[in-house]
Design brief:
Number of domains: 3
Low-confidence stretches: 202-208, 332-375
Structural class: alpha+beta
Largest sheet: 4 strands, antiparallel
Number of helices: 14
Strand content: 5-15%
Shape: globular
Order of helices and strands: HHEHEEEEHEHHEEEHEHHEHHEEEEHHH
Number of strands: 15
Strand order of the largest sheet: 2-3-7-8
Distance between the termini: 57 Å
Oligomer: single chain
Length: about 450
């Protein structure tokens, strides 16, 4: 009997396959045997996310080349990442600060760790979703941290609030240079020089101060609109405290849907250049393979093989916003021998699985009864105030839109999602619309 390759799969793939073949009981049994119920919980939370159509976004360049994971030995020196076809330079430009009562130009250093990664994704997601350079962060710093997913802040010299502020200062004060020669067919070459995320930012997030709104530089914003990569917002929430896993997820989210042919093979040295690790190669491989367990739990359609000696194999995969378990590596062979495409995963009651994300249903609670599926598809045209079908969307806008004008939000939604939703079933569009209304209100300080 040949070797069972299923045991070589990362845990996220194993849980998805067990779920499809044996249901919840099989996945829980496997999680118990492996001692990784936390990985299964992440899988369940992403699959059961009621706002799964609410996408996050990151620039393709930043998906392909990551920030440092740890602080470099010289934090004021520029960081340059280059794989021959693509290069990213992060230059910590000095900013004017008051130090001991005197104005001085001081370099804050390059950003590193998970905080600037999560903040960067959040900021760019707001820009893409609402088609604007002006990003409203929140009424105060604590509110913004909660939007980022950091609920329990600690204060003091090494508290989370202090560390987040320091990393945001570094992130927004840096100057970026990007050169891209095209990786796959359809990826146009480009070069963007001397770009700051925010032209006006000058390190003003000191104790007692908070910049409630930032404006992306016009050059960067214009470029972002053409090179934004969709990510799963629920997945970002699960990965927000693990820099390497977040880097790997973003890299795969960009690369896998663009793989042409049967597969693409890269070396570990090439992957090392893309991710933000500064460890030696042996621990790097170990850490990436460990991170892949969680990454495949939140992106089970990511068809990637890291078990082969010496190389990493990338296979064509659906984008991470597709929550149906549809990847070729997740197809079932039925007892009759016929191939069966994996169905959409649903989440019944599973004892012992937890969720700290308040906006999701707790695992174990019954899902709301599905609405009847009408033959009409897509988002309604015109005002949502009139018509039986329109009133369903209008009610969601009133409930989730924070008091903002529903028709104004509808116009913004059509502009952003109209085309991609025109052939989607009404229930899917309603869920997408609800997530959009929440984000619209949150971005503008509405009551949600």
């Amino acid at each position: 009997m040949g070797h069972d390759r299923s045991a070589d799969r990362p845990l996220g793939h194993q849980f998805a396959l067990s779920w499809l073949e044996e249901g919840a009981a099989g996945a829980v049994k496997l999680a118990t045997q492996s001692g990784r119920r936390d990985i299964l919980d992440s899988f369940l939370r992403v699959q059961s996310d009621e706002e799964g159509d609410n996408l996050a976004f990151l620039h393709s360049a930043l998906c392909s080349m990551s920030l440092p994971i740890k602080e470099p030995s010289d934090p004021t020196a520029p960081i340059i990442r280059d794989d021959g076809r693509y290069a990213l330079a992060i230059n910590p430009k000095p900013v004017l600060q008051m130090i001991d009562g005197r104005a001085e130009m001081r370099s804050l250093g390059v950003p590193f760790g998970n905080y600037p990664r999560v903040a960067l994704i959040w900021i760019l997601s707001q820009a893409v979703r609402f088609n604007t350079r002006d990003i409203y962060l929140g009424r105060n710093f604590t509110e913004w941290c909660r939007k980022l997913g950091y609920e329990n802040l600690s204060y003091g010299p090494r508290g989370t609030a202090t560390r987040i502020k320091e990393q945001i200062d570094r992130l927004l004060a840096c100057e970026w240079q990007i050169r891209w020669d095209g990786v796959t067919e359809g990826d146009a070459a480009f070069a963007v020089k001397e770009v700051k995320l925010s032209n006006e930012y000058a390190g003003s997030m000191r104790a007692g101060d908070f910049v409630r709104e930032i404006r992306l530089s016009e050059t960067f914003y214009s470029h972002l609109k053409d090179h934004a990569v969709p990510l799963n917002e629920a997945a970002i929430s699960e990965l927000k405290n693990q820099s390497l896993a977040l880097d790997l997820y973003c890299y795969l989210a960009y690369r896998l849907p663009r793989v042409t042919g049967r597969q693409q093979i890269i070396t570990w040295e090439q992957l090392y250049k893309h991710l933000g690790s500064n460890s030696d190669m042996k621990p790097f491989k170990q850490n990436v393979r460990k991170a892949l367990h969680l990454v495949t739990a939140v992106y089970p359609n990511a068809n990637v093989d890291m078990a082969s000696p010496g190389v990493v194999k990338l296979f064509p995969s659906p984008a991470p916003d597709e929550r149906s378990l549809v990847g070729n590596h997740l197809r079932l062979v039925g007892k009759s021998g016929n191939n069966q495409t994996a169905p959409v995963a649903t989440v019944p009651r599973v004892e012992g699985c937890t969720s700290e994300r308040p906006k999701l249903n707790k695992v174990g609670e019954p899902k709301p009864k599905a609405l009847p599926q009408p033959s009409v598809r897509g988002f309604p045209e015109g005002s949502l105030r009139y018509g039986q079908r329109e009133k369903r969307f209008y009610a969601v806008g009133l409930e989730r839109g924070g008091g903002f004008d529903v028709d104004m939000m509808a116009d913004a939604y059509r502009k952003r999602f109209g085309e991609q939703m025109q052939n989607r079933a009404e229930d899917d569009v309603l869920r997408s619309w609800e997530g959009f209304c929440r984000s619209y209100a949150a971005a503008r300080g509405g009551q949600i």
